[in-house]
Amino acid sequence: WFRTMAPPVLSFLKSHDFTGKTIVPFCTHGGGEFGEIEKDIAQVCPRSLILPGIAVNGAVSTDGIINWLKTIGISFI
Q: Which residue from 7, 47, 54, 60 has the highest number of Cβ atoms inside 10 Å of its Cβ?
């Protein structure tokens, strides 16, 4: 699915109403980063708030995830 969403994910997004919902994209990759994923989500879910995602290539630390969540304004604990 180089640089785009896997077909099952796209199908899921198309079959549900995400109006007014917040979407936080994330993916793993082997070098393609996010590619067009965030743009593709915005096209399929135009009435949603799409926050900056995270693309992971290899291992990611818990601190890395926590820092990303803080950066996009999601807090927990």
A: 54
